Amino acid sequence: MQSSLAVAPNRAESTLDSERVFDLRTSTVRELNQKLHSLSEDTNEKFWRVENPRGRHAIAVGLDLPISVTINGHVGYYCAGMNKRADVTVQGNAGVGVAENIVSGRVHVRGDVSQSAGATGIGGNLIIDGNASARCGISMKGVNILVKGSVGHMSAFMAQAGTLTVLGDAGEALGDSIYEARLYVRGSVASLGADCMEKEMRDEHKAQLFKELESAGIAGEVDVSSFRRYGSARQLYHFHIDNISSY
Amino acid sequence: MNEHFRIPRTVPRKSATFDDASIAEIRRAAATGIYDIRGAGAKRRVPNFDDLLFLGASISRYPLEGYREKCGTEVVLGTRFAKKPIELKIPVTIAGMSFGSLSGPAKEALGRGASAVGTSTTTGDGGMTPEERGHSDILVYQYLPSRYGMNPDDLRKADAIEVVIGQGAKPGGGGMLLGQKISPRVAQMRTLPEGIDQRSACRHPDWTGPDDLEIKIEELREITDWQKPIYVKVGASRPYYDTALAVKSGADVVVVDGMQGGTAATQEVFIEHVGIPTLAAIRQSVRALQELGQHRKVQLIVSGGIRSGADVAKALALGADAVAIGTAALIAIGDNDPALEAEYQKLGTTAGAYDDWHEGRDPAGITTQEPELMQRLDPVRAGQQLANYLSVLTMETQIIARACGKSHIHNLEPEDLVALTVESAAMAGVPLAGTDWIPGVEGR
């Protein structure tokens, strides 16, 4: 298959480096990922644009360089999976498991996302401008997720570490079986899951939340006092027969 | 009446239904209000490899010379899609067991032993340790529902990736590691608070069903640039369908683990009553592969209760490409050693029966995170013991293969086998010994 790799000069946002363009209408996801994986640590090809993603899966997965990738359109499952250091922006919606197991760097989705966004992520930032479906932040292990819209049911299920910030509402069973992750929700919470409870919003939490809002570029627009904090009641850390009705 | 006459009395008779073990369990449950948890696999007797016999050579088939003619044992795994398939020198691999459930020295011993004879080891539900990677020439990295310790760097350091759907001891169950074993290092690797009871998820967090699995495998291949073989491991329950779906999802290798396969910690009721025996699973998996034209192209690894070269040879004759051992490997490095009987007695058990691996008090230093217990295990000596045992398994497999006239262990076939019981004949799809009857096969 013919590669569509081409230089697109004179773009305003690419003042230091030329932006590289990859068209998935004429190239494969394999070619795209292989190219991004093969870049050297000191590459000057730092800005990439992907056109015509057309819902394809596994776009820009396993990146491990401080490069910027903008995807113009909707993506399928696992976009930016296991991302490390890279800055990936999706100018559209994302399918299941966007930025799953993200290690570091930043993934920004301009639209809505499907289930399991940021699942098991161990670091970095995931920012979703729209809504997230069920199980957002499931088993998260340190990632910081910020959703400007609402999140679906079972979000932050078994969440171990990191933060989930929701400017809208949260669905049923938020934070079920949560460990030490922190959840900040501005809107309503349909219900809390097992062992998840509302907690006091102290100054340290307001400072942390401010930082999360800052990293999403909305620190001045949203008041940290309008959020409520949820976390683990730590009652189910050791299995006890008296808690059987919680399961 | 004769004063010496006595009415005959019946002897005390215990119930076959309410036997000693059943009564003890009822009493334990009544006292505690909680189910029993233990390690290891099913202990009940189920149809197994002992129910099969090889026919050996006869007038129609001639044997190979035991000490003179070559009988190959090498196995290549991952030839379907992976750019770098794994080449094993022997058909026996080490099954997935986590750092956390096992001590660091135990994992090191497994790596040393396996590497010495040219085979692989496998991580478990706790991530990859540098020691394990360092001592294992060929390391399979498990991709589990919990994703504890999962990261792309270790994924790329692995020689293969095993997507774990389930295991034989508990098809449908998640991992379990109780607080006694969540040491600071284990907690850090799993991003958990120290000392809590860890009960892992039983389903993957970002996919459900075979269509999703296909996309998940595609993602893992993309992250690793299609270099690594990708295994799919299932607990034996519906092996025909699970094998077919694993193939459909793009697996290079299918691992089927029977109910005798061990676990670090699971409810007794789960271990003994969910899943099917290893013997019952193999032909079903092989049939799925054959119908899809993928037998020997997608490799099949079978595990659960493998003890001897005879077991290995029987699994291969039924169509497996390799086997994996877990419990037997632990025994080889010192688990349940009679020399520790006095200490087992203190724990209320006896050598050969010790299965409270979840309590972390293993006197052999294998299933523990206690520093003073762990240091009892010399990983160099234990690794040599494992290497010896793996060599014996391989030689025993060759002895049987040569007796059947095979120049490679993969040339063993179902026609080399007969069964001792109707049940095993039906499960293995081989004739009842002395007959040409295969129960369940039309016209036989």
In short:
The complex is a heterodimer of chains A (247) and B (444). Chain A is mostly beta strands and 247 residues long.
Description of the structure:
- The complex is a heterodimer of chains A (247) and B (444).
- Chain A is mostly beta strands and 247 residues long.
- In chain A, 9% of the residues lie in helices and 23% in strands.
- Chain A has a single domain, classed as Glutamate synthase, alpha subunit, C-terminal domain (Pectate Lyase C-like, 3 Solenoid), CATH 2.160.20.60.
- Chain A has helices at residues 29-38, 203-215; strands at residues 6-8, 19-23, 47-51, 68-72, 87-90, 106-109, 125-128, 141-147, 161-166, 182-185, 196-199, 228-232.
- Chain A has a 12-stranded mixed β-sheet with strand order 1-2-3-4-5-6-7-8-9-10-12-11, with helices on one face.
- The longest helix of chain A has 13 residues, at 203-215.
- Chain B is an alpha/beta fold.
- Chain B has one domain: TIM Barrel, CATH 3.20.20.
- In chain B, strands 5-15-14-12-11-8-7-6 form an 8-stranded parallel β-sheet. A two-stranded antiparallel ribbon of chain B has the order 1-13.
- The chains are: A mainly beta (247), B alpha/beta (444).
- At the A-B interface, α1 of A face α6 of B.
Number of structural domains of chain A: 1
User: What series of H and E elements makes up the topology of chain A?
Assistant: EEHEEEEEEEEEHE
Q: Classify the secondary structure makeup of chain A into a structural class.
A: mainly beta
Mean pLDDT of chain A: 92
- The strand line-up of the biggest sheet of chain B is 5-15-14-12-11-8-7-6
Count of runs of 4 or more consecutive helical residues of chain A = 2
DSSP, total strands of chain B: 16
The CATH architecture assignment of chain A turns out to be 3 Solenoid
Span of the ends, CA to CA of chain B: 66 Å
Helix content range of chain A = under 10%
Shape of chain A: elongated
Radius of gyration of chain A using CA atoms only: 19 Å
CATH topology of chain B: TIM Barrel
What is the first-to-last residue Cα distance of chain A? Answer: 53 Å
Low-confidence stretches of chain A: 1-16
**Main sheet record of chain B:** 8 strands, parallel
CATH topology of chain A: Pectate Lyase C-like
CATH class of chain A: Mainly Beta
Largest sheet of chain A: 12 strands, mixed
